[in-house]
Amino acid sequence: MKVIVSVKNAIKNYTLGKVVVPALRGISLDVYEGEFLSIAGPSGSGKTTLLNLIGCVDTPTSGVVEVAGQDTSRLGERALTNLRLHTLGFIFQSFNLVPVLSVLQNVELPLLLQGKLSGRERKSRVAGLLDRVGLHDYAHHRPTELSGGQRQRVAIARALVTRPQIVLADEPTANLDSVTGANILDVMKELNRTEKTTFIFSTHDARVMVHASAVVRLADGKVVDRISAAEAVKAGISGLATAVGAGT
Description:
By secondary structure, the chain is α/β, with parallel strands linked by helices. The protein is built from eight helices and ten strands. The chain starts with a strand and ends in a 14-residue tail after the last helix.
């Protein structure tokens, strides 16, 4: 299988005053095209930091992060922006929605920035995704008029609308009820199956984890092991975390 993400001996330190706080301590990880990969571990283990490095939202203190065959440390800001826009989709815990835009406009925004589709094609794709995430009736609402779960669904639709090669998801089913969470999972699995979209997600949700092609366990900024979803569920891996939605 083709490697689509390669992390090689990545170290990430944060400086707080005179104190250096290590978040990642030499992580190496290969992700293969079309994987549905779960990153698991307790709060503070480095899950979110690792996703941020892969997503070119942050840079490692040392080490190499390659995304879609490109060494991100060698890319200028314009190339990084293009990589984020055309190759990556993001589902953040904090949603990162634009408050002055409607739900429809928030989801459509990445397509406008890409400039590939006609207005009719954009509206059709956005409408289809809003239907899938159960937000058709909220298309013209603004984020401040939505619940946390509804905003989470907008963020998921926005991440999927460009049909990216790689989707990075930090607790994608957090704040969602079981029915909506299952529907979102169906959408992601369908893209994974039909478009060969690679998903890399952190989760404490056994409903999501059981569908993973593999589970990578982190602890103290290091990779502990890489096991199957069945092994993870059997081991009760969702209990590794002490707080749902928490991460480094």
